[in-house]
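Throughout our pipeline, every protein is held as a single compact record rather than as scattered files. Nothing more is needed to write down the fold, since each code stands for a local backbone conformation. For reference, a complete record is included directly beneath this paragraph.
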Amino acid sequence: MARPEPSGGSSGIGAVLQLLQAEFADVTISKIRFLEAEGLVTPARTASGYRKFSAADVDRLRYVLTAQRDQYLPLKVIKEHLGAIDRGLQPAAAGPPVAPTSLPQTPGQPVADDFDATGTELRLTRDELRTAAGVPAGLLDELEGHGLVVAVGNHYGGDAIVIAKVAAELAAYGLEPRHLRAFRTAADREVGLIEQVTGPRRTEQTAELAALTVRLHTALVRSRLPRP
């Protein structure tokens, strides 16, 4: 039987309690309020101060209650797990959330949607990136040294997984990170060309232009390869 979900965009604490009691018989309003006080869930508030829980809030509560019931995890550890999920990592059946080991691939010619901003961008630590990409620390050091993988603050985006994986595959053909700087330069030039049209801020045209430039790049490379 499918579990009930909140109706509309948000639900009051009483409705959320009814939803959760179908799975967690011992949950109470006091428990939900306690989890909020501990910073594990942050429902919106109406002008009158009433809590309004979104579907994402309810899923978050389910995660907390499940981790307590099935894994006996303390709230401190669960809060760390939630922080990892907020960075785009995926919940695991047991243990902390993990970074995806593969990202959606673009079939055929790239389209604008492939370059559109996603709702949740990955923010990986260095160790999480290495694990997800399956690359040694030395290779990642070289990729960073040549500007092919760049951290924003202390985190890396999901594209860093793809770059590291492809670099490792190219290394099997004798192409080292220092040989790949031309790709970074070409990408920088293509981005510069796009910004000449759209400006430095992302616009509705940005993703479409990015798809067109990559399609052109692919066709040019293909046209210059020796014919079989």
